[in-house]
C-alpha cells in the first residue's frame, strides 16, 4: 500500500458539514456588505515579495519571521504567499487606477499564509474577510467601517465582543513619539526582554504591545502617543469617537493598541473577546493614508479591517450560534434500479422548480432494502420521502411520506401525487421549508 499523503501541518481541509458553516457565514457577510455599498475584489494569492516588504514594513514580525517567501524558478523573481489582504488590494487599486473616478468601497475573502506555530484559531493557512474604503479621508469613513463590523456581530448573534480603539496620529507625530520611546527604554534597557531589545531601534512602538508580565509596569509608564498629537489628529480621533457614541456603539480607548503593521496611522481598532482564550482578537483594522503612495499610486487615503474566519467560527461555535447544515426538502426512495429512467427526469424537474431533493446512492450490491433507505432518508433531515415503488410507478404516481411531525403545508399524511404534475406539487414540498436553527 502506498504511503498516505496528508495536508501540511497548519493547513486544513474544510469538509462537510463544517463547510456549510463557512458558506453560511460568507452569505451573511455578503448581504451586509451589499447594504453598505461594498463590492467584491479578488487578488492573487502570490504577490511580489517587495509588495509586503514595502507595504507592511521590513522590521515587522510578518516580514521578518512569518512570511512564506520564495524565488520563482523560471525567472528568479522574489515572490511571497500573501500574509494579509490590504497590501494586495491597494496594489490592485494602483495598478488598475481604480480611484480615477472617485472613492471605492471593496471587500475580499480568501486564504492568507504565515509560517508560525499552529494552534487553536491560528494556522499557517488561515482565512480572512476584509473591507477597504479607498479615497475616503474623513472620520465618518472610520466610523462607518467600525459600525459595519458591529452590525455583523449583531447579525450573527455574537456576544462578548468588545471594541478597543486608539489613534496613532500622523507620521511626524509618530516619529516624535518614537524618539521619546527610544530615549525612555534606553534608560531602562536592563529591564527589556530579548524581543524588546531587538525592537528598540527598529520598531519601538511594538514594545508597547508586549505580553511579558515582567514588563507591564515599565510599559505603562512609557511616554504616551497622545501627548505628541497635534490638533488635527486629536480632532479626527474625537470625531470618530463622537460618531460611534451617536450610534450607541460602546468602545474602550486603549492607548497601548498599536497594531503590528507599519502602514497604520490615525485610527486603529480591534474587536476582542474573552471566549477564545489567548487568541482574543477576532477583527482588527485602521487607517492607512500613506500606503497608496508608498506602493506607487497618487496619494490617497484608505481605511479598512479584516477578520479571521476561523476565529469567528470558533466564537460562534463556543456561543452556540452556528446553524445546523441545511437539510433537503425530500429524499427519493427507489426500491428497484429499473425505475431510474422514470425517476431521474422527475427529480431533475423538481430541482429545476427549486426543490432540494437527494436520491439514494446505489451500491455494487444493489439499492438496499426499503428499511435501510428510509433510515437514510430520516438521517438526512429531509421533511418528506418520495417513494418510487413498482405499484406507484405503474399507476403513474409517487408516494409522498412526511418524515417529520407538525410539518406545515397541505401534505400532513402519506399521499400520492401524479408524476405528470411535478411542477404543481413541487411547491407543496417546499411549503414551510425548515429554517436553520442554532446548534446546542
Automatic annotation (TrEMBL):
Residues 25-335 form the Aminoacyl-transfer RNA synthetases class-II family profile domain. Homodimer. Belongs to the class-II aminoacyl-tRNA synthetase family. It comes from Tepidimonas charontis. PROSITE patterns: AA_TRNA_LIGASE_II. Pfam families: HGTP_anticodon, tRNA-synt_His. It is found in: Cytoplasm. This is Histidine--tRNA ligase.
Amino acid at each position: 500500500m502506498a504511503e498516505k499523503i496528508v495536508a501540511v501541518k497548519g493547513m486544513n481541509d474544510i469538509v462537510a458539514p463544517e463547510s456549510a458553516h463557512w458558506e453560511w457565514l460568507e452569505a451573511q457577510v455578503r448581504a451586509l456588505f451589499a447594504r453598505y455599498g461594498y463590492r467584491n475584489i479578488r487578488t492573487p494569492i502570490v504577490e511580489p515579495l517587495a509588495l509586503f516588504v514595502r507595504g507592511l514594513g521590513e522590521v515587522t514580525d510578518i516580514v521578518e519571521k512569518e512570511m512564506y517567501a520564495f524565488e520563482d524558478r523560471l525567472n528568479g523573481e522574489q515572490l511571497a504567499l500573501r500574509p494579509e489582504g490590504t497590501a494586495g488590494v491597494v496594489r490592485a487599486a494602483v495598478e488598475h487606477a481604480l480611484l480615477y473616478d472617485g472613492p471605492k468601497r471593496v471587500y475580499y475573502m480568501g486564504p492568507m499564509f504565515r509560517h508560525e506555530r499552529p494552534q487553536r484559531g491560528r494556522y499557517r493557512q488561515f482565512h480572512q474577510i476584509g473591507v477597504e474604503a479607498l479615497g475616503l479621508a474623513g472620520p465618518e469613513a472610520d466610523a462607518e467601517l467600525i459600525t459595519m463590523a458591529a452590525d455583523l456581530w449583531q447579525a450573527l448573534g455574537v456576544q462578548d465582543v468588545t471594541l478597543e480603539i486608539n489613534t496613532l496620529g500622523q507620521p511626524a507625530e509618530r516619529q516624535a513619539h518614537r524618539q521619546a520611546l527610544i530615549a525612555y527604554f534606553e534608560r531602562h534597557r536592563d529591564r527589556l526582554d530579548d524581543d524588546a531589545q531587538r525592537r528598540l531601534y527598529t520598531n519601538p512602538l511594538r514594545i508597547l504591545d508586549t505580553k511579558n508580565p515582567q514588563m507591564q509596569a515599565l510599559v505603562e509608564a512609557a511616554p504616551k502617543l497622545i501627548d505628541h498629537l497635534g490638533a488635527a489628529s486629536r480632532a479626527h480621533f474625537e470625531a470618530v469617537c463622537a460618531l460611534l457614541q451617536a450610534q450607541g456603539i460602546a468602545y474602550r480607548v486603549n492607548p497601548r493598541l498599536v497594531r503590528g503593521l507599519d502602514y497604520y496611522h490615525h485610527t486603529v481598532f480591534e474587536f476582542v473577546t474573552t471566549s477564545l482564550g489567548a487568541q482574543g482578537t477576532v477583527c482588527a483594522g485602521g487607517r492607512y493614508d500613506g500606503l497608496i503612495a508608498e506602493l506607487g499610486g497618487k496619494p490617497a487615503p484608505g481605511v479598512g479591517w479584516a477578520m479571521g474566519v476561523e476565529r469567528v467560527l470558533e466564537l460562534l461555535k463556543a456561543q452556540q450560534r452556528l446553524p445546523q447544515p441545511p437539510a433537503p426538502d425530500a429524499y427519493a426512495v427507489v426500491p428497484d434500479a429499473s425505475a431510474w429512467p422514470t425517476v431521474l427526469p422527475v427529480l431533475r424537474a423538481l430541482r429545476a422548480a427549486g426543490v432540494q431533493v437527494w436520491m439514494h446512492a446505489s451500491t455494487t450490491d444493489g439499492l438496499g432494502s426499503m428499511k435501510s433507505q428510509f433510515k437514510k432518508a430520516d438521517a438526512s433531515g429531509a421533511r418528506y420521502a418520495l417513494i418510487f415503488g413498482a405499484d406507484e410507478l405503474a399507476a403513474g404516481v409517487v408516494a409522498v411520506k412526511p418524515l417529520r411531525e407538525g410539518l406545515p403545508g397541505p401534505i400532513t399524511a402519506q399521499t400520492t401525487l401524479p408524476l405528470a404534475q411535478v411542477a404543481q406539487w413541487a411547491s407543496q414540498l417546499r411549503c414551510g421549508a425548515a429554517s436553520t436553527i442554532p446548534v446546542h
